Amino acid sequence: MNSLATTHDRREGGQWTPLQTAKNAVLYVVASAILALLSPMPPRWLRAIGRALGRLAYAVLPGPRRTTHENLARALPAVPAAEREELAQRVYVELGTHLADTVALLSPRHPLRVLAIEAASRAVLDAAVAEGRGVLFISAHLGPWEAVAGSLVAAGVPLTVIAREGYDARFTKLYEQLRGKLGVRAIYRGSPGAHVGIVRTLRQGGVLGIPMDLRSRVPSVVAPFLGVPADTPIGPARIALRTGAEIVVGTAALGSDDALEITVTRLDTRDLPADPGGEMTLTLLINEELSRRILAMPSGWVWMHPRWA
User: What's the mean pLDDT when you consider all of the chain?
Assistant: First the structure.
């Protein structure tokens, strides 16, 4: 039997069973109703609800909770178990808070709370754009990642993000509604012409945002991530070296006053050849920088993701 069909994932060529079709229709209707009810609420109410849901999810979802603890033990083996337990709970509460802020953006009543770009990082990003060969902006699901993209656009950065379609196309439309409000353009990697869109964006001197911290069904190599070998997409390094585009890593980070801001680090690719060895070296540099950022703000990362499955 075709392995793609057995996944029932339409993005991979599979098909839903009649039962899955009915279940997904119910999920979409329920989710849409909940979002319509919640999104107009005052942001402080939504954050309180988000924090409460985060605590509830940690308590009642044993599978994700177990994955969270396994991942924390892999990446932070020197941290005592009691501290990892406390960190795991904070991860869920913080994720609930950020998701609440994202839900608020679905309402026209609530504008984006723009994150400042740290001054030196803005200079780094502007210098990379000024080269005129396009920029790959490598990022992670760290803190309010949707707000990072919206804040870059609000600051005049010509950003287009690479995204994966939702498992249900109706949910993809919700993402498009959110990104449209923020002014963020998206290229869906499974769509016809995605490769053409990527090359065109770079040739026009644009900034291509690529989240690269999660496990994906794309060509990958094994490279240390948070100190543990993990399948890592090779595509961003390949694109950068073959097109000559500049490459930076940027995420939300804690500033000197503990307020969130966007910081950007430029990676030097001048001596790297456009061959498998150069691609591997650049991928190692990317993972090293992403790992440093996650470890600096560990409660903001999605530790329940099966990164090392």
Answer: 91
**How confident is the model over 287-301, as pLDDT tens digits?**
999 999 999 999 999
Q: Return d(Cα 98, Cα 20) in angstroms, integer.
A: 29
CB neighbours of residue 18 within 10 Å: 7
Locate all alpha helices (DSSP H) within 244-275, ordered by sequence. Answer: none
The whole-angstrom separation of Cα 168 and Cα 284 is 33
- Average pLDDT over every residue of 255-261: 89
String of DSSP letters for 188-246: ETTSTTHHHHHHHHHHTT-EEEEE-SS--SS-EEEEEETTEEEEEE-HHHHHHHHHT-E
Report the amino acid identity of residue 309. Answer: A
Q: What does the alpha-carbon distance between residue 204 and residue 91 come to, in Å, rounded to a whole number?
A: 39
Helix (H, G, I), strand (E, B) or coil at 9: coil
Return the pLDDT at 12: 60
Q: How far is CA 84 from CA 23, 36, 52, 74, 91, in A?
A: 36, 36, 20, 11, 10
Domain boundaries, the chain: 3-104, 119-300
Contact partners, residue 301, CB within 8 Å, separation at least 6: 91, 140, 141, 142, 213, 294
- Cβ atoms within 10 A of the Cβ of 46, count? 23
From 141, 145, 152, select the one nearest 183 (Cα to Cα): 152
124 vs 152: CA distance, rounded Å:
13
